[in-house]
Write a structure and sequence with these properties.
By secondary structure, the chain is of the alpha/beta class. Helix content is 36%, strand content 16%.
Length: 308
């Protein structure tokens, strides 16, 4: 008589954010997985003792917690690095002590963004802003402390149902403005947070099974476009006139932190884990717009405007 398989225990850190909430939903429907959650209010990852206590007893830890204020990091780099660097080191050290697998979310901003072909996973890093530098410190901690059990997953241009994001903003503005100017000189991969959550679940299961080598993976959608292209696609799929979106360049929207012009990432490493890369960005966008929160924004954007 075979022994029943024991459920694997997972911990989602940063569980209150856009990706964290999708991770909880995906893992809740996964057989033989028990999931715990810690929001930012419930766990300060810069507190090493609190991190050790939270990680204890979990076989997989997914870190979706981060300082995400890109512009704010320019004048508060130490504070950003405390979360994105020191906090990640605390998680990696706790996982190293218990033998847990760590799936850590990082960013395309660790690259300079002046490339012309997709960045492979082992491309040299060269952040061009404080946020990117802070995230690179976290990546380095995972590589140093968890060479066999650490998984860094870089993502970019994330959107979804929960929290502020570009797709939701475009749909909200469609109900308020006749036209929108959107930059057409920044290239990237719009990535649906729910699809990324599914990919992280599959990577974690492969890590537990011993079929996914540790290291860096690129968790972005396949294909690429610009912010202008994404906005037009969003309007098209929402049944709105895409001609309402007009192209401009980055000089029209100067920000405190410089943005990379080219954030397209390659996905070759997924094959080593026996997994396929994420689907094409446009296919995922069409599916995402059918989900309740975004679908409601689509309906609102299509309502006739009141005269006056």
């Amino acid at each position: 008589m075979s022994t029943p398989q024991q459920p694997s225990r997972w911990l989602v850190v940063g569980a209150g954010g856009m990706l964290g909430r999708d991770l909880l939903a995906v893992l809740a429907g996964t057989p033989d997985v028990q999931v715990g959650a810690r929001t930012r209010a419930e766990l300060d990852i810069t507190d090493a003792a609190a991190v050790r206590a939270a990680v204890a007893g979990h076989g997989v830890v997914v870190n979706a917690a981060a300082w995400t204020d890109v512009d704010g990091a320019e004048t508060a780099e130490a504070a950003a690095t405390a979360v994105n660097g020191t906090g990640v080191r605390n998680l990696a050290a706790a996982c190293a002590a218990t033998g847990s697998r760590l799936l850590h979310l990082s960013t395309d901003y660790v690259f300079h963004g002046d490339g012309t072909v997709p960045y492979p996973e082992d491309a040299p890093t060269d952040p061009l802003n404080a946020y990117g530098r802070s995230k690179l410190v976290g990546e380095q901690a995972v590589a140093e402390l968890l060479p066999d059990h650490g998984y860094t997953v870089r993502t970019a241009w994330l959107y979804g149902e929960h929290g502020a994001n570009f797709v939701a903003t475009m749909l909200k503005l469609a109900a308020q403005r006749d036209t929108l100017d959107v930059v057409d000189d920044q290239h990237g991969q719009p990535t649906w947070s729910y699809a990324l959550a599914q990919q992280l679940r599959d990577l974690g299961l492969a890590a537990l099974a011993g079929t996914a080598p540790a290291g860096v993976y690129h968790g972005t959608a396949s294909g690429s476009t610009t912010w202008f292209g994404l906005a037009r696609a969003c309007y098209e799929l929402a049944g709105l006139d895409p001609e309402r979106i007009r192209p401009t360049d980055s000089t029209a929207f100067v920000r405190p932190a410089p943005r990379p012009g080219f954030s397209v990432l390659a996905h070759d490493r997924w094959a080593s884990a026996g997994l396929k890369p994420l689907p094409d960005w446009r296919d995922s966008l069409g599916e995402a717009l059918l989900r309740p929160v975004l679908a409601e924004l689509v309906r609102a954007a299509n309502k006739p405007k009141s005269p006056g």
